[in-house]
Amino acid sequence: MIPMRLSHSILQGLLPLAATILMLACSAPPVQHGSDTAEVTLPVPAGKVRAAVIDLLTANGYEVREEDHEGRTLTTGYREETEGPWDWLLRTRFGVGRSSVVATVMAESETATRLTLQVTYESKNRIFDSWSESPSPLQHSAENNIRLIQNALGIL
């Protein structure tokens, strides 16, 4: 049997060690997913593709900005994925997602355009969580946005 003083000193020595191990086990870095990117060449002039991209992003609730003077790079701010009177509760307590888009429209010829879409989706689960990159939901993915742009341009 271990004397009382010895067992008490052993416990005092093990307690900080156990607390340190527990804290290190719970502090894993967040998983990084990266942006969702898709690229396609469309048999349509660049002006029509640019207009279709702006129309689609505006219809989906994004505010579109031009990043360069030629209008080749279009960016959006973050769009909140929820709408309604209880948004504040969803954002602060139950989690929410937000996304932004960068579109690059490059004319390859008079009748062909290369379109690159990059969708960044971030989410958080609780009020004190920070935003972290997550996989894009299917309806907001880059591939789905390109499909919708092709439909708007009449490309099958």
Explain what the structure shows.
- With 156 residues, the protein is an alpha+beta fold.
- It has a single domain, classed as Alpha-D-Glucose-1,6-Bisphosphate, Chain A, domain 4 (2-Layer Sandwich).
- The protein has 4 helices and 7 strands; from the N terminus they run αβαβββαβββα.
- The chain has helices at 4-26, 46-59, 87-94, 142-153, and strands at 36-42, 64-66, 73-76, 79-80, 96-107, 113-124, 132-133.
- Strands 1, 2, 3, 4, 5, 6 and 7 form a 7-stranded antiparallel sheet that branches.
- Helix 2 packs across helix 4 (142-153).
- The radius of gyration is 25 Å and the shape is elongated.
- The model is unreliable at 24-32 (pLDDT under 50).
Protein traits:
156 residues, single chain, alpha+beta, 7 strands, seven-stranded antiparallel beta sheet, Alpha-D-Glucose-1,6-Bisphosphate, Chain A, domain 4
Going by CATH, the architecture would be: 2-Layer Sandwich
Mean pLDDT: 79
Global Rg = 25 Å
Structural class: alpha+beta
Largest sheet: 7 strands, antiparallel
Distance between the termini: 82 Å
- List how many beta strands DSSP finds: 7
Order of helices and strands: HEHEEEHEEEH
Beta fraction = 25-35%
Number of helices: 4
Entry summary:
With 156 residues, the protein is α+β, with helices and mostly antiparallel strands.
List the helices and strands and how they pair.
Elements: H1 4-26, E1 36-42, H2 46-59, E2 64-66, E3 73-76, E4 79-80, H3 87-94, E5 96-107, E6 113-124, E7 132-133, H4 142-153
Antiparallel strand pairs: 1-6, 2-3, 3-5, 4-5, 5-6, 6-7
Helix pairs in contact: 2-4
